[in-house]
From TrEMBL:
This is S-norcoclaurine synthase 1-like. GO terms for molecular function: metal ion binding; oxidoreductase activity. Transmembrane segments: none annotated. Residues 56-155 form the Non-haem dioxygenase N-terminal domain. Residues 213-261 form the Isopenicillin N synthase-like Fe(2+) 2OG dioxygenase domain. Keywords: Iron, Metal-binding, Oxidoreductase.
Length: 276
């Protein structure tokens, strides 16, 4: 496949991040002392409203393509468009189970490597691409209890292959194949959104023709102390056109804030594919 060695300028515009301690190493150190104060988050809320997530829809992408049965699915999608809300789950998306499973296995194997192996693809100075943390801009900033691996994936000329891991040995081919499948899903979703907005799908997709796809792989190690006072990922709104998530394991974690309250969302965590 054709690749670029230094990545495209668009990803560099996303920001930079200062180097910080590896959270996975902190969690595995066995130190009985307190965790560093930079990870203690006083704003963590414990009163999670689990009922608030019930009305977030499950959308069947396969049925959206069926003229006979698509009306109900289109209505669900149309419901989330005005406020750009979340789709709880996307089913029948067409991505083969073996492709998703291979991606899950390779992500887990990457994060289980010794630290020196992961640091071989560490973020370069002034960039968020690579292994590390995102958007750390000061020495006294509060930090997330998690490590991440962030890569530009599509178009292929956008890739910085120097930051693509070679261990596990299947990682590059797996991510390449998975990113192809994600683009297909993205185009189908954007086409369905266009119809709901009363636009021609071709013209709507044309708005994204210069867009890029990137992935963010997150690892949240168990916190040995004050687990109720740390955050794996700070509250945020994704500054992208579309975000797809793949849960790598069965650990519950994602929370959604709606109408000023945190709603517990138990089945989405791990792998992001973002389309700008």
């Amino acid at each position: 496949m054709e690749v670029a060695e230094n990545g495209g300028p668009k990803l560099k515009l996303l920001g930079r991040s200062l180097p910080v301690d590896n959270v996975q190493a902190l969690a595995a150190s066995g130190d009985p002392g307190e965790i560093p104060q930079r990870y203690i988050r006083p704003e963590v809320m414990s009163d999670v409203d689990s009922a608030g997530a019930d009305d977030i829809p499950i959308v069947d992408l396969g049925r959206l393509a069926d003229l006979v049965s698509s009306a109900g699915e289109a209505a669900k999608l149309k419901m989330v468009l005005p406020e750009l809300k979340l789709v709880h789950e996307l089913i029948n998306h067409g991505v083969a189970e073996e492709v998703m499973q291979s991606m899950k296995v390779d992500i887990e194997e990457f994060f289980q490597q010794p630290l020196e192996e992961k640091e071989a693809v560490a973020q370069p100075p002034g960039s968020i691409e690579g292994y590390g943390q995102a958007f750390v801009v000061s020495e006294d900033q509060k930090l997330d209890w998690g490590d991440m691996y962030f890569l530009g994936t599509r178009p292929v000329t956008f890739r910085n292959m120097g930051l693509w891991a070679t261990h596990p040995p299947t990682f590059r081919s797996t991510l390449d194949k998975y990113s192809q499948e994600l683009k297909k899903v993205t185009d189908r979703l954007l086409g369905a959104m266009a119809k709901n907005l009363g636009m021609q799908p071709e013209k709507f997709l044309d708005l994204f023709k210069n867009g890029v796809q990137s992935v963010r792989m997150n690892y949240y190690p168990p916190c040995p102390h004050h687990a109720d006072k740390v955050l794996g990922l700070s509250p945020h709104s994704d500054a992208v056109g579309l975000t797809l998530l793949l849960q790598v394991n069965q650990v519950q974690g994602l929370q959604i804030r709606r109408n000023g309250r945190d709603c517990n969302q138990t089945d989405r965590r791990g792998f992001h594919s973002q389309r700008r």
